[in-house]
């Protein structure tokens, strides 16, 4: 299939598919006699894999490293698992940071009027003090 069809099938833009190929994230794509990309199911699966890993937050460099290990003729499952564990640790840390921010927003919303009243009282007191200074 051509790159447009592959793009429609995977939901990945043609530009991203070209980028993945240029960065070595997917294998080199065969070309037709006239030079158009001829994408097969093997490439589609790789595009889907790259998309999933990028959605999981894996950096291009880590993904390239993982793919190099995966494509290696050597036994690399231990190294692959190490990379995946590192990625998971990073994602869990991001999730935890995000959860702190979410909890903070929930607290602000749950106590919105209390916070607003305290701020209003503080501003009124500052206005009163300013007025007193101006009168003296």
Would you mind describing this structure in some detail?
- The protein is mainly α and 136 residues long.
- It has a domain at 80-136.
- Helix content is 75%, strand content 0%.
- It is built from 6 helices and no strands.
- α4 packs antiparallel against α5.
First-residue to last-residue Cα separation: 84 Å
Number of helical stretches of at least 4 residues: 6
Which structural class is indicated by helix and strand composition? Answer: mainly alpha
> What sequence of helices (H) and strands (E) makes up the elements?
HHHHHH
List the helices and strands and how they pair.
Layout: H1 3-10, H2 14-22, H3 41-55, H4 60-71, H5 77-110, H6 112-135
Helix pairs in contact: 4-5
InterPro entries: DNA-bd_dom_put_sf, MerR-type_HTH_dom, MerR_fam
Pfam family, one: MerR_1
Keywords: DNA-binding
Which descriptors apply to this entry?
136 residues, MerR family transcriptional regulator [Lactobacillus paracollinoides], DNA-binding, DNA-bd_dom_put_sf, 6 helices, 0% strand, single chain, mainly alpha
Précis, in short:
By secondary structure, the chain is mainly alpha-helical. It has helices at 3-10, 14-22, 41-55, 60-71, 77-110, 112-135. The protein has a domain at 80-136.
